[in-house]
Amino acid sequence: MCGRFHVDVQNEWMAAIIQEACRRQRLLTGQETLGAGEVFPGQVVAALAVGKKGQGAYPMRWGFSRPGGRGLLINVRSETALKKFENAMRRRRCLVPMCWYDEWQALDGAKGKLKYAIRPRQAGQAYLAAIYRYEEGSKLPVLSILTREAAPGIAFIHSRMPVILPEGLRDAWLAGEGDPDALLKQCETDMECRMEEGSICPGM
Description:
The chain is an alpha+beta fold. It has one domain (5-201): hypothetical protein yedk fold. Helices cover 21% and strands 41% of the residues. It has helices at residues 12-29, 78-84, 86-91, 170-175, 180-184, and strands spanning 5-7, 37-39, 44-51, 54-62, 64-65, 72-73, 75-77, 93-98, 100-106, 113-120, 126-133, 142-149, 160-162, 164-165, 191-201. Strands 3, 4, 7, 8, 11, 12, 13 and 14 form an eight-stranded mixed sheet that branches. Strands 2-1-9-10-15 form a five-stranded antiparallel sheet, with no helix packed on it. A two-stranded antiparallel sheet has the order 5-6. Strand 9 (100-106) and strand 10 (113-120) form a beta hairpin. The chain starts with a strand and ends with a strand. The relative contact order is 0.19.
């Protein structure tokens, strides 16, 4: 799954994307509230998508609204996404740039979890694959991050991981080209992880 990820405004590549998304948010809402550093569900994030003027960075709120106000759907299983969210999978794909994402490993016989930072081993630029939609009452589109079975090297931490696409698939994914399931199968699976300082998180 993916419940936290990190963006670095000091990273030149990432800063340019965030700046563009901030500019669009100011025009749409009069505010500038993009999440930076450790990003949480419900925050506004910078996402790459194809709009009327071509590919660019857009502000999107993280999490589809669940029916009846039952919280947010922050992740969508990639294995069933085409069936449940066909329109978004074919026409409203986006990518969320990140430095790494966080995952928590449950401790046997102990209270608390260990927090890990995880990212592709070789990728210089990492993108979380996501889909978006428009919801009534929201000035911004909302997105949900796709997940898949965890890669073997990190499966000991959690059984699921976000779908991370390599730079080479960026244009094809955003343009809505090809079979989305076929593109998702080419995701990053060579991952590296490190335990974060103060990683024992009680009561999670």
